[in-house]
Every structure is written in structure tokens, then in C-alpha cells.
Please model this.
Amino acid sequence: MTKKHKDIISFPMKLVLPIKKFLEREVVKLGKRRKKIKEADPFSNESRTTENSLEEDVDEQIGHFNAEVKAGFVAKQIVQMRKALTRIKLGKYGQCEKCGHMIKTDRLAVKPETTVCIDCEREKNS
Model:
């Protein structure tokens, strides 16, 4: 689905500015959250010993895996929000990056960082 439209409507900046500020605040919050997650990773503990019992080693491995998964999820959220911020900067916020159609405002209200319409999202997940 890569149809491009000549008559693209864009949101007025006075409507997009609060969204931009919200996304910028969320990026900062998520960055702090990611830092805390990484600090909680047992592998980042400098006083960590490598001479653990089997149970302690398993706990550390699970804690590390948990931290890696959470940090990865937060990193993906940050990337998505930065993509939305870039689209705001380019004047393309609210336009699907795949098909060029306008993303429904209901979708943007729930997920302001989205850059694809629901149809393209479904197509991607099929």
C-alpha cells in the first residue's frame, strides 16, 4: 500500500503543539525509566560476584533478561515517539507514513506517537 495523495490535509500547528510538548516530555520520562531499568540489571552491579550458587546465578540471569526485555521495549517506545516528533517537524503529523492517508483522530488521541493508520498497521501484522 504505497499510494501517495496530492491533496494532503495537515493539522494546524496550534493543534499539534500540545502533542509535540507531550511527546517531548514522554521521551524524557522514558529515557529516565530506561536508565533506571538498566541500573537495576544485576549484571550492572559492580560488586557482583561470579562465584554464586546455582540459585543466585539463575536469579541474576532472570533479572538480567527481565531488564533487557524492559529496556528494549522502552527503547522502541522512544524511537516511535521521536518518529512522531520528526513528522511534526516535517509538517506530516497525522499522515500515515505507509499509504499517505490521514490517520483517524481517534487513533491519534489514544496513541499520539503513531505514524501509521489502522489499515496499514493491520496489514503489517498480518
The helical segments are 13-40, 54-89, 105-110, 118-125. The chain has four helices and no strands. Residues 1-6 have pLDDT under 50 and may be disordered.
